Amino acid sequence: MTIETDRNPLEWALIFDPQAEIERISTFIQTEVARRGARGVLTGLSGGLDSSVCAYLCARALPIEQVHVLMLPERDSDSKLHEQAHAVVRSLGLRTSEADMTSLMDWLGLYDDTPQEVARNRTLLERWMRGIRRLSGAPALFPWVQEYAYGQRRGLAAGALQRWMWRYAGQTQAFVLGKLRARMLALSLRAARQDCLLVCTTDRSEWSIGFYDPHGDGVGDLALLSHLFKTQIRALGRELGLPESIITQPSSGDLAAGLPNEEAIGMSYELLDHLLVGLSLGMSDEAIALHADASPRLAATVRSACALADARRGMPVRLEPLGRD
């Protein structure tokens, strides 16, 4: 047997059998629905890659009448994604409901500081993010912002920057978290009413660095993709027969102007996945950088983001139980 010694270990670790994984996930869905005595599953559908893959997986695992889909458009939703969501439903023959969230989000004040002309101006939003990244000098935007948001930066300069930045970042965080949590409230209530298990669509790439809200898109009864990296989910989508337009389009949280997640994270998913694989293999920052064609500083930044994400999953912070001396 010939052993390949020149294969990139990061690429090698991402190789898997999509068909076998589809069968494994299908069995998981069937087993959990039966174990919990649920009437089926409910998944939110935006028309993006992750939610579409979850819809296809559920439709493959269960009878159509046990798969429920809820679409939650609002003022800033991307019309192309919404059209793709309807195309997915039609192709699978699924039953779907749709609830416009605009009035609720307006009542919550989520639009107060972000006019529609700004929220729908993708060019402006991308330029703003790139400007912040240049000013920060950070190799990736999202991990840098998280370090300030959760008090990981120390010193007078860091404290002053955090207070100044929060005048703007606080508005953005309220805008993002408010939308994610309003959606999850609607999904959770509908799932409870229909006695269905709620599907969590967050993938391993986003889960690893904390690019999700534990009280929003991280909520659910079944996490179908949290063990798979984004590049693996694209392969899974092709095996399931998703339209190529969904597989290749930039992933987006559909929060404003269809802004791609890669702009907010600060790197491509392909690069992020390679860095995360290197961390999972126990490689040093220098070794990861060598195989991922990146800088050791970027590898260290992703390592820090993963550690902070682990800490966030332990929140809320608790006091030790009372004891006797």
Automatic annotation (TrEMBL):
The protein's enzyme class: ligase
A Pfam family of the record is NAD_synthase
User: Which Gene Ontology terms of cellular component type are present?
Assistant: cytoplasm
- Single Gene Ontology MF annotation: NAD+ synthase (glutamine-hydrolyzing) activity
The UniProt record lists the NAD/GMP synthase domain at 22-107, 179-306
Q: In which pathway does it act?
A: Cofactor biosynthesis; NAD(+) biosynthesis
Q: Per UniProt, which keywords does this protein have?
A: ATP-binding, Ligase, NAD, Nucleotide-binding
Reaction catalysed? deamido-NAD(+) + NH4(+) + ATP = AMP + diphosphate + NAD(+) + H(+)
EC number(s) from the headed UniProt entry: 6.3.1.5
Key word Transmembrane helix present? no
Q: Does the keyword Transport apply?
A: no
Q: What is this protein called?
A: NH(3)-dependent NAD(+) synthetase
